[in-house]
Design a protein that fits this description.
seven-stranded mixed sheet, about 30% helix, about 170 residues, alpha+beta, 7 strands
């Protein structure tokens, strides 16, 4: 493990982290390659849509430099073991292993809870996110062509998933 990774502890995401999380999220939105969202939701809306027991932050010198969380994909009981992840890393620490640390913690947490599949959608242009997810065991399972428009432009989305090898 690189020295930088060791200096970035992963902790539970708490409401008081929201301003820094929102800033990192806004930076991701501004790239045009992270999400279809065009503005950061309120804490209340974000909190209601993400599973509280699977939310994490990366901290560097006490400041949030990344976050990861999951949302249920459906409220139908058959999909109770399937979630969708989000992971965002501050521009200043990208490429230093922070995203990997966050995803590894998220995977451990979801597996402990009996979740067997984590999925995510990534724009094909977001090569760094694709590489990150593939490094922790996600694989591309499909391409959703022209899934939606962002700023008037149709965008494809690659569907990735990671099936647990420990949850049966």
């Amino acid at each position: 493990m690189a020295a930088t990774e060791q200096a970035v502890p992963i902790g539970d995401l708490r409401p008081e982290h929201w301003p820094e999380i929102a800033r990192i999220y806004a930076d991701g939105i501004a790239t045009g390659d992270a999400t279809f969202e065009t503005e950061v939701p309120s804490w209340e809306r974000w909190h209601a849509s993400h599973l509280a027991e699977h939310r994490f932050v990366a901290l560097r010198d006490g400041a949030v430099v990344g976050w990861a969380a999951v949302s249920p994909v459906s409220d139908r009981c058959v999909y109770g073991g399937v979630v969708e992840n989000s992971v965002y890393v501050d521009e200043q620490v990208r490429g230093l292993g922070v995203g990997r640390l966050l995803l590894e913690r998220l995977i451990a947490s979801t597996e402990q809870a009996g979740i067997w599949t984590i999925q995510t959608g990534v724009f094909p242009e977001n090569e760094a996110s694709l590489r990150l997810h593939e490094r922790v065991g996600f694989e591309v399972v499909g391409r959703r062509k022209r899934l939606g428009k962002l700023h008037g432009v149709w965008r494809d989305v690659l569907l990735l998933e990671r099936r647990s090898s420990v949850v049966e």
